[in-house]
Every structure is written in C-alpha cells, then in structure tokens.
Amino acid sequence: MNSTLRSRSLPHHALRRLLIAIAFLLLGFLAYGGWQVYRVYNDVHKIYVPVPRPIDEPTVVPSPFNGTKRINVLVLGSDNDKKKEEARPLSQSMIVVTIDPVHSKVGILSIPRDFWVPIPRHHMGKIMLAYKYGGVQLARETVEHLFPFKIDYYAWVGLNGFIKVIDTFNGVTLDVNHPVLDDSYPNDLTSSNPYGYKRVFIPAGWQHMDGSQALEYVRSRHGDLIGDFGRSARQQQVLLQLRTKAAGFSLLQHLLPLADELSKSVRTDVAPSDLLPVERLVRRIQPQDINQTVLSCPAFCSPGTTRDGQDILIPYWPKIRATVRQMFAPIASATARTQPSPNPRPTPHGGVPSRAASTATARATPLPTATPRSTPVPPAFHRLAGKILFVKDGNLFELRSGQDIHQLTFTGDVAMPVPSPKDPSRIALVRFPNSENVSDIWLLDSDTGKMTRVTNDASTSSDVRNNMWAIWPMWSPDGSRLLFSSDQAKLRFLPSDARAVDLAVWSWPLAGGSPVQLTVPAQGAGGDTSPVWRPGSTQFAYVKWDYTQTANQPYSQIYLRDTVTSNEFAVTPVGGRVLQPSWDAGGQRLAFVRRSLSGVDEIVVAAVQQTSKGPQLGPRNLIARGEVGQPSFSPDGRWISFVRAREDGFALYVAPANGGRAEQVPVLGASLDGRWRPVWIR
C-alpha cells in the first residue's frame, strides 16, 4: 500500500520545483504589493505639504477630525495650469468649510475674490492677491485677520486636480440651475495658447458631468449677470455633490488611483493619518445638515471702483461678521454625537430628493397640484404607442416597439432631435462638433441617413467669440419653419468679456429667407430657451430666464407667444424655476419641470385655459419628482416619457399623462444623456 501511495505522490524534485515556484510567486506578490505601498506613500506625501505659520503669529493646534472642536478648512483654487510664468497665481476661488464633528454639521462660506481688504505686510488689495503675494501662508493669515475664526487646515487644488478628483469619482450628477453661456472661457488646458478662449454652453436641468465639464461649470463667469457670485454658488453645489459621492465611496479602497492622480495638482496639510477619520466623518454628514453662504451683493457687499480703475467689492463687515459668528459658533455640546438620519424615504413617485434638495438655489411659487388619480399601468414595452428617439453618446437612436433599437447617426456630436409633424422621417437636430465652439441645426432623413445643414454658425473671423449657438430646434405645425434659440444678436456688438451672449428665439423659413428674431432676452441669466410650437396654432411656448432684482437669484417663466400678433403672456409666476415645456398632440396640455417649495424637481401636466386675462394653466397633475426631466407626450396623449438619474446616467420612464405609476423602459438601462429630450414619433 505504501508503494502505491508513493507512486501517486509527486516526485521529490517535482515537489521541490513547485514549492520554489510558489515561493517566487509569493515574493512577486509581496514585491508588487510593496511597490504599490511605496507608490501610495510617495504620492500621498507629495500631496501632504504642511505650511508653517510666521514666527510672530500665535500657535494654532489643528482640531482633530475625530475630536469635539470645530474644524475650519481653507480651500483655494487657482487657474494656473498652463501659465507657467507665474510662480504663485491668483486664487480664483476661496472657500472656508467649517465642520462640527460632534453633530455632523457643515457650513460652506464662499469669499468673493474681488473683496477689497487689507493684506498683511501689503497695502489694500483684492483678497485673491494674498495667495499670489505669499502663498497659502499669507492667504490663511489674511482670512484669519478679517474673520473671527482660525484656520486648522488648508487644501489647494489646481485645474487638473479638480478634473482628476471629479473623474476619480466617475463624474457628478447635477441640477444646473439656469443655462450657462460664456464666450470668453479661458482655453488654457488643451490649447497651445493659454490665453486663448473657448465657448461654453450648459443647458439647465439634470445632467451628468465628467471632470472637464464640471470644471467649465464651476469656472465660467462671463455670461452670468452676477459673475463670480454665480460661480461661487456652482462651486458649492459641486462640493456638496462630491460629498454625496464620497459618502458611498471607499476612500482607502481607491487610495492608489486617487494618490497617483492628485499628486501633481493637489496640496494640503491634512495628514495621511487623518484619512480614515475624514472618511468616517464625511459618511455621517447628511444633506440637510449643510449650510451654504456666498458673501454676494447686495446682501454682503457693494460694487466699487478704485482710483486706478479696478472693479472691486466693498464688504459690509458688520453684517458679514454677524453671519460668520453664527456659522462658526463654538460647538454647544459634546456630550453625544448626532446619529445619521436614515435614508430618505422614496416619494410616492419614486423620487428621492437627495441631490435635488442639496442643489436648489431658487424656490418656486406654490402652485395647485391635483392628487394623482388611479390610472392604468404603462403599456407593455413591446406595445408602446409610438417609437422613441433618444440620444446616447452623441448619437441618435430609435426605439421601436419597446425592444428593437436602431442607430440613426454615427457622428458622435448629435443632440436635441425633433421629428417633423408632416414627415416623421425628417428629423431636425443639433450638432456640436468637437471644437465645442459652435453648434448648427441639421436635417436628417432617417430613411437614407443623409444629413443637410440648415444653419452655418461658425464665424469667418479667427475670434471664436463670434461663433454662435443654434439650439432647441422646433418645427412649425405645417413643417415650413423652424423655431430655435440663438445668440446671433450679439454680433451687433464687438466681442468682449462684457458682451451679452443670452439666447433669443428665432424663426427660420426653410423655403428660403433670413431668420427673424422673435423675443428679446433679459441679460445675464441665459436668455430665452426651449421654444415649442403649439400644434394647430400660430403660438409657441418658451422659457424666459431672468434674475430677481432684490436677491439676485435666477428664475424662469413659461411664456406663450403668438407669432402673428406678437402678443405674449406668462403662464407661470415670477420667482420660481420651470423648464423643458412640451405640448401634447392636440395643443391643449403642457408638460414641464418645476421646482417645488422643498427644492425638489417635479414633472407636472396642466391644461392651457383661455381666460379674460389671457391664457392660464389649470391644475397641475403630478407625474414624477426627484432627479427627473425632459417630459414628452406620446402621440395619443395618454402617456408621458421622462428621464430619471440612475447611478451615473439616466434611465427612460413612461407614466400615465393623468398621473400614476411610472415604469422604466428596461432595454435602455441608464444609458441616456439627461441633457437631451427623448421624443415620440408614430
């Protein structure tokens, strides 16, 4: 028996070779693991850069992240990535984040870069000069001399660092509060000329952004009436969304790619040993426990001009210090930590107002809402009441019978498809070429795949600021004209950072002739967008964006305008936020997105009623709420399709137009682009 067992065992020399191979394999794993640990250690310590205080400053012992004292972090952002001649650039962003680790509460204070302040050991100047004159040390000292608190930690982020942080978290999903347009956005990351320009267009509503898109969103300021104040609010919005992402993201698990990506463009004095306490603290913070303040005009400052012609902001220090003392007050009690509240319960229509509530910067006027009635479940998706056009990865697709998907374009630059009411195979769409400085309207023959250009909005000059946007095309009921939004009225003036770039609604006769401007936009909020022609009439609805005069907050209204008489009426009140209107096939009902009083986006449907005071909207039927948008009626008017944020994309849903349960179209997953409306065709 022993000889039999030996015959089945490995020979000694074979066993020895196997053990040696295993040993070398283990050594290889250990060597690789050691190399990775060394890389993380090396990269993390490149990021970790303590900045000593001047000898004459009092010693400050930073509060620990797992302690019981308030923690203040100075966050600085710079635009220097390709302007190498500047050893220390201006700080374009200055934010102080204050954390109460006992009750898991956070305050975010944005300090405008043009605040006119005394800078220690220098004269009066804009606060953004402090970093240029003396780096983190002087920026920190300046803030501490102006405000009644001490800074525990700092974090500096360059442009590439911001992009890499966002991309490491797989992007962010945001509710853009109003359209962002900028003809003078600095093209200093990908261009050979760091002082060149590129143009930016970001539509309002829910969308997913990668790092480059998010940077454009938080950095743009030239087309916004309130300039840096609007930019500061957007920066806070992205910070809050990053916090939401980080709460479900293992920092230590992703430490290797994070450290590698950030080692060249992020600096902080938060020690590597604090990473675990920071992660635990971030997970405890809930959206409702975050307080945001931008020290904006007219509440906290007023515009002014220096003797040498600089545009500055003059702070109202008594009001600022009163607000700051409240936000940075000592922690009342350290006896017990507030436990995180449970996950918010889904709303009756499946929405969870997490990101929506945290990104709201305007509040809608209350409107009557009808209780949803009991209605049928949406049809089985192999029996949809028509085909659906949708955009994915810059290409146009057609969903047939709820299951069969047919790709119609292959250029990777398509958006905003609209089929002709007379010939559904004729589709108007917008193309954004890779240059990102222009857009044009094209007509697609879906039977042949041929595309024909309608507009030609690239400028013949070398100045990209004279390029134009042609967006949101919409057919007239007889198919002879296209409505669209455009910024071409700006060409009446020479290009400059101050030139208005707001969109107006134009009409283009397809049989020949010149476009005609139909609306005059307010300045600085985005203009007039999303025109939709009312079926069977000479009227169209559109969204007009403006700013409130007292609080400098953006708002929007839906207007109904007649193309023959030029009469127009607002059908939603001043001060709220509405967007993305859509008519039913009979021209009797409008579906649109509104923001509720609680800051949650809602899709509603309302009948348009004619009164002695003009057209008005009847009671609203609630269709969906949460991170939703892009409503569209089915051809028979019985159903509403819309998109909802899911993971890092958008899914398509269908719900009864009178209100009721919504069902996801499963074949599409979460692959849609939330910026562009899926539309129905017969």
Describe the structure.
This protein has 682 residues and is α+β, with helices and mostly antiparallel strands. It folds into three domains: 19-45; 71-327, 3-Layer(aba) Sandwich (Aminopeptidase), CATH 3.40.630; 354-681, Neuraminidase. Helix content is 20%, strand content 33%. It is built from ten helices and 40 strands. Strands 11-6-1-2-3-12 form a six-stranded mixed β-sheet, with helices on both faces. A hairpin with a 3-residue loop joins β17 and β18. α4 packs antiparallel against α7 (255-262). The radius of gyration is 28 Å and the shape is globular.
Annotation keywords:
682 residues, alpha+beta, Aminopeptidase, Neuraminidase, 20% helix, globular, disordered N terminus
Break the fold down into its secondary structure elements and pairings.
Blueprint: H1 2-8, H2 12-47, E1 71-78, E2 91-100, E3 105-110, E4 116-118, E5 124-126, H3 129-146, E6 153-157, H4 159-168, E7 172-176, E8 180-186, E9 197-202, E10 205-209, H5 211-219, H6 228-247, H7 255-262, E11 266-268, H8 275-284, E12 290-294, E13 301-305, E14 311-315, H9 317-327, H10 354-359, E15 369-370, E16 387-392, E17 395-400, E18 404-407, E19 414-419, E20 426-431, E21 440-445, E22 451-453, E23 470-475, E24 481-486, E25 504-509, E26 516-517, E27 528-533, E28 539-547, E29 554-562, E30 568-570, E31 578-583, E32 589-595, E33 601-611, E34 614-617, E35 620-625, E36 628-633, E37 639-646, E38 649-656, E39 663-664, E40 679-681
Parallel strand pairs: 1-6, 3-12, 15-35
Antiparallel strand pairs: 1-2, 2-3, 4-5, 6-11, 7-10, 8-9, 13-14, 16-17, 16-40, 17-18, 19-20, 20-21, 21-22, 23-24, 24-25, 25-26, 27-28, 28-29, 29-30, 31-32, 32-33, 33-34, 33-35, 36-37, 37-38, 38-39
Helix pairs in contact: 2-7, 4-5, 4-7, 5-6, 6-8
